[in-house]
Amino acid sequence: MSRRARIAALAAAPLVAAGAFAVAPAAVSAPAATAPTAALSATTVVNWAQTGPLRVTVDDAPDHRIYRPANLGEKSTKRPVVIWGNGTGATPAAYDKLLRHWASHGFIVAAAKTKSSNDGVQMRQGLDLLEERNSTPSSPYFQKVDLEHVASAGHSQGGAGALNAAADPRVDAVLPIQPGPLASPGKVDQPTLYMAGEEDNVVKPAWVLGDYNASSNRPAAYAEIRGAGHLASTGNGGNFRGMSTAWLYFTLRDDAGARAMFGGPSCGYCSDTTLLSQWKRNAKFLTFTD
């Protein structure tokens, strides 16, 4: 059976019929809050899986659920953006604690409510929505949205959606988590962190590795989370949470501590065999991080 046929068969039945996405428990409990990390030096050790310092609120729109810091900051403060795509048959509720986690670190997350996010269209509409609110004087988002720093992220079908949404030139970085097959990785231009699960029987790690291998045109890395199955990234993100947060800090904030996790002489993830069963970086990624 081909890669695409196998994914279609596995994703359509157990994930939707059993309702596994919507109710999957988180693999790792959320830790206590930590201090802000924006000014960290490259030598500072950070547990990126810890909850951030900011209180979170959630705003509902017809087609999106927006997770954001309750206090968007003073006039000069702007918050980077993540547009999110769900797995097959899922809604943002399946990833609620992960998306809250990112918002607690100061990111505005526009999560598309669609259960079919593969084309990335509704994900990109979340960015349109934030652009509109950012330009509306009566909105709490007015001039608070950092539209110059945007990442597209998603899980499973939404991981493919994250790659497809990167066709939008407003997207600066990509985070496909256990991504489905219906995307063209070689057409993406932005830095990309591919995340796979070592024990994923729905989206095989080898398939995600193939997407990474097709991404030599840009900075790309491959991270395989040790022992993780296909639903390990739902809920609060499990062991995907910390690395994904560091990636957002690095690519959207150019945070020195986060950068040091991906490159440089102390490259934190390069030798982290407790978290990762495989870790690869291409030549462009080495230039991008080191």
Automatic annotation (TrEMBL):
Cross-referenced PANTHER family: CARBOXYLESTERASE TYPE B DOMAIN-CONTAINING PROTEIN (PTHR33428:SF14), CHLOROPHYLLASE-2, CHLOROPLASTIC (PTHR33428)
Signal peptide range equals: 1-22
**Superkingdom of the source species:** Bacteria
Q: Mention any Pfam family matching this sequence.
A: PETase
Q: What is its EC number?
A: 3.1.1.101
Q: What is the lineage of its organism?
A: Bacteria, Bacillati, Actinomycetota, Actinomycetes, Streptosporangiales
- Where in the cell? Periplasm
The record ties this protein, via SUPFAM superfamilies, to: alpha/beta-Hydrolases
Taken from the UniProt entry, a GO cellular component term is: periplasmic space
Name this polypeptide is given? poly(ethylene terephthalate) hydrolase
Q: What is its main location?
A: periplasm
Keyword entries, A-Z: Periplasm, Signal
Question: Which residues does the UniProt record annotate as the domain PET hydrolase/cutinase-like?
Answer: 58-255
InterPro entries documented for this protein: AB_hydrolase_fold, PET_hydrolase/cutinase-like
Recorded catalytic reaction(s): these are: (ethylene terephthalate)(n) + H2O = (ethylene terephthalate)(n-1) + 4-[(2-hydroxyethoxy)carbonyl]benzoate + H(+); a butanoate ester + H2O = an aliphatic alcohol + butanoate + H(+)
